[in-house]
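Continuing the series of single-chain predictions for the mutant panel. This is the parent chain; the variants come on the following pages.
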Amino acid sequence: MKTFCIDPTALYRAAVICSCCIGLTFGSVSPSCLAQTSKGAEGYFQRALSESRELPTQEQAVRDFDSAIKLSPGTTKYYANKAELLFVLEEDEAALAAADKAIKLDPKCELAWYAKAKAQGRLKRPEEALKSINVVLSLSPKDALTLETRARLYVVQNRWQEAEKDLDQALNLSAGLISAYNDRINVCQHLKQWSKVVSDCTACLKIQTDHPGRMLQSRARAYAALHDYAKAVDDLKQAVKIWPDDIKVHRELEAVYKAMGDQKGQAMEAEKIKSLNRDY
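Parent structure:
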């Protein structure tokens, strides 16, 4: 796998707003109405945050963000959170517009820059996205998720070594970040750093014990590339137990038996593949 898709929900941060994004301005609102207006806008905002966490109510959350903005159009966090939610809803151009409004109000609003970078990335504007994500990292240089996002942008540009460096740093900051392990496995497969693939697959299998099949396959391929065929066979046999009727797994196992000169194992897998082909 040589390209990455940024998961729309994996990096969603609507509930956490940096302190630079919470200033309020009320324009020409009279002092007598100030407290009531603030309470109304904040009420809409808090409800929108709650609604944004569940798919059935996310469209209503956008409307509530808009209501908050109408009452308090100078509040950065309302635009920033709306931008993040619009990204989740895959409304990328609208997300960019909301993010730009937040950034105009506060150029140091990390959430807005982050939403902007992700939207630009999905709109296939990797160079623009990279500039935006670099702003986020200038504000929070030790954020693992942001480093992972930049690594994915580097991959789109075939900047594999830089992607690996960011993922190394992300995992040093957050050792349990399974998505970063998956990304680094893909990067290291491209770079043919098979020992690192084995290490990362092993770490993933320890962290995430459910659905291990694909990780076992990836580790088996790395073992095979390292000519450690016995371990490759062990992993593929475990994968076969999970997916006994998966022809691709049996073909991989057959290829490993062939590489190690095990004619009996190769013949056995070839027969199994024929049987599965007849069944389908």
